[in-house]
Design a protein that fits this description.
By secondary structure, the chain is an alpha+beta fold. The chain has one domain: Purple Acid Phosphatase, chain A, domain 2. 19% of the residues lie in helices and 30% in strands. The strands form 7 sheets. It has a 7-stranded mixed β-sheet with strand order 15-14-11-25-26-27-28, with no helix packed on it.
C-alpha cells in the first residue's frame, strides 16, 4: 500500500512540475544555460537532436567513449518576413544541433540525460496529435493556454511518459499559436505567438519535456507545419532529413520544395512497420489534376505501396484522415452522421477504388480532427483510428459521444465504430511475437484507460 501511495505522489509531482514549467514559460531558463535534447526517428536511422541557447553545441557520449560535440544542424537566425502580408518575423535565437546514432551504440548521453537505443521489437507506442494551444485571430478563437484544464498538454505528456513507451508517434499539428492573445483575455494573456522559437517552446518543447526525454519520436507532418504556417520550425527542429536551405520554408518561392517530403517506414517488429506520409498540403477540398500536389501525391502513394510489401502488417500514418465520421451537413440526409473524406481521398479512390490503400496496409492512424474515433469498414478497406484530441481545442460537436445505430452503420458501410470526445492520448501495444496483432488503448488526461481496441487484419474493435 505504501508503494502505491508513493507512486501516486511521484506521478502527481511530475504533472505539477510540468504544469509549473509550462505556466512559467521556462522563465528560470530564459537567462541561463538551456539544452533540450530529444531523439528523432528518420528513414532507417535515429537522430539525436538538441536545441540550445549556448554558443556551441553540447557534447554527446556514446556508451563509454569520450564525449564528442554534436554537429550544428542550423544556426540561430531572425528570418525576414516571407510575404509583405506577414506581420511578425520568425526569430530563432538558438542553435539546433544533431548527430546520427552510431550503429553499434547502445546509449547516448547529453548532459545528464541518457537516451537508450530503441529496441528492434517495439512493444509499446504512445500516440498523440494536435497538441498545441489554438490562438487564431482570423477565427476569433483563443484557447486558454494558461489554464491546464483547458489546455492539458503538460498533464497528457507527463502521464504518457509514465507509461514507459518504446516509441512516441506524433501525428501532426504541433504548433497552434498563430495570433496574439487579446489583453482582455486572462486565459491566454502573455502567450508568445507567431512562428519563432518562443512559440515552439511554449507550444511543444516545454510541455513535451517529460516524454521527449523518455523515448524516440516519429513525427508525422500536419497542415500547421506547412511552409505558410510553422514550416520553418518544422524543418529546423523536427524534420528527420538533412538540413537543406531550399526546403527550409524561409523563402516563399521555394515552398513547392519545402512543402513535401518522401514517405518512409519505421520497423516495429518482425512483420510490422509504420509508414510515414507528409500530408501538409492536403486540404478539405478534393485535390484535382490542376493542383501542384496531385502528381506528387500520386507518386508518393505508389512509393507507399512498394514500402508496404516489405512487411505483413502495415500501419499508415498521415495527419489527415482518409475519412472521418461527423454530424451530417445535409438537411435531407438519411443518416444523422456522414463519412467525410479529405483532400487526397479521391486520389486514392482513383488509384485503388473503395479500398483506398491496398493490402497489406491494415491500419491507418490520423489526427487533424480533434476527436478520437475507431472505424472498421464493412468493405475491403484498412481499419482507421483518428486520435487528434491531445491538447488543441476539441471538435465543436454537441454530442458528448458519437454513436451510430445499426441502420446508420449500414448506410455508411461501417461494421464497427467507437468514439470519445474529450482530451486524451493513446497507446498501441504489440500482442504477438511478429507484430500482426495490437491493442490500442484510449486514455483520458489522467492516464485512465477508457477504451481498449483490438487491432488485427483490417479491423479495430473497441470495448
Amino acid at each position: 500500500m505504501m508503494n502505491i501511495k508513493i507512486k501516486k505522489l511521484f506521478s502527481l509531482a511530475i504533472i505539477l512540475g510540468s504544469i509549473f514549467l509550462l505556466n512559467t514559460g521556462f522563465a528560470a531558463q530564459e537567462n541561463s544555460d538551456y539544452v533540450q535534447p530529444y531523439l528523432v526517428v528518420g528513414d532507417n536511422q535515429y537522430i539525436l537532436r538538441a536545441v540550445t541557447n549556448l554558443a556551441k553545441c553540447p557534447t554527446v557520449q556514446w556508451d563509454s567513449q569520450d564525449p564528442e560535440e554534436m554537429k550544428v544542424r542550423v544556426l540561430g537566425a531572425k528570418i525576414p518576413l516571407r510575404k509583405k502580408s506577414d506581420v511578425i518575423e520568425s526569430d530563432f535565437p538558438i542553435l539546433t544541433c544533431e548527430m546520427v546514432w552510431p550503429k553499434d551504440a547502445k546509449e547516448g548521453k547529453v548532459n545528464n540525460q541518457v537516451f537508450k537505443r530503441p529496441a528492434n521489437e517495439i512493444k509499446k507506442i504512445i500516440v498523440v496529435a494536435d497538441t498545441g494551444c489554438r490562438l487564431k485571430g482570423a477565427e476569433n478563437f483563443y484557447q486558454d493556454c494558461n489554464e491546464p484544464t483547458k489546455w492539458p498538454l503538460a498533464q497528457i505528456m507527463a502521464n504518457a511518459a509514465a507509461k514507459n513507451p518504446d516509441l512516441v508517434i506524433h501525428i501532426g499539428d504541433l504548433h497552434y499559436r498563430e495570433s496574439p492573445c487579446p489583453e482582455s483575455l486572462p486565459g491566454c494573456k502573455g502567450s508568445p505567438w507567431g512562428y519563432g522559437y518562443d512559440t515552439w517552446k511554449a507550444d511543444f518543447f516545454v510541455p513535451a519535456k517529460p516524454l521527449l526525454e523518455k523515448a524516440a519520436w516519429v513525427f508525422v507532418r500536419g497542415n500547421h507545419e506547412a511552409c505558410s504556417r510553422a514550416g520553418q520550425g518544422w524543418h529546423r527542429f523536427i524534420d528527420p532529413r538533412s538540413w537543406d536551405e531550399k526546403r527550409s520554408c524561409n523563402d516563399h518561392s521555394n515552398d513547392v520544395i519545402g512543402d513535401y517530403s518522401e514517405p518512409f517506414s519505421v520497423p516495429l517488429g518482425k512483420a510490422a512497420q509504420f509508414i510515414v506520409f507528409d500530408s501538409a498540403k492536403n486540404g478539405s477540398k478534393p485535390i484535382t489534376e490542376k493542383d501542384e500536389s496531385f502528381s506528387i501525391y500520386v507518386n508518393q502513394f505508389k512509393t507507399i505501396e512498394t514500402l508496404a510489401l516489405n512487411k505483413k502488417f502495415n500501419i499508415f500514418g498521415s495527419h489527415h484522415p482518409l475519412n472521418i465520421v461527423l454530424p451530417s451537413k445535409k438537411k435531407d440526409s438519411q443518416s444523422e452522421y456522414q463519412v467525410y473524406p479529405t483532400g487526397f481521398t479521391n486520389i486514392l479512390a482513383g488509384l485503388n477504388g473503395e479500398e483506398l490503400l491496398k493490402s497489406p496496409i491494415n491500419l491507418t492512424i490520423h489526427g487533424h480532427n480533434h476527436i478520437f474515433e475507431a472505424i472498421t469498414y464493412d468493405i475491403n478497406r484498412p481499419a482507421e483510428i483518428v486520435s487528434g484530441n491531445s491538447g488543441s481545442s476539441l471538435e465543436e460537436i454537441n454530442n458528448v459521444e458519437i454513436k451510430l445505430s445499426d441502420v446508420q452503420k449500414k448506410l455508411l458501410k461501417i461494421k464497427e465504430f467507437s468514439s470519445y470526445q474529450d482530451f486524451g492520448f493513446g497507446t498501441l501495444e504489440r500482442q504477438d511475437e511478429t507484430g500482426e496483432k495490437w491493442l490500442f488503448t484510449e486514455f483520458d488526461v489522467n492516464g485512465k484507460a477508457l477504451l481498449k481496441c483490438d487491432v488485427s487484419d483490417r479491423t479495430v474493435v473497441c470495448k
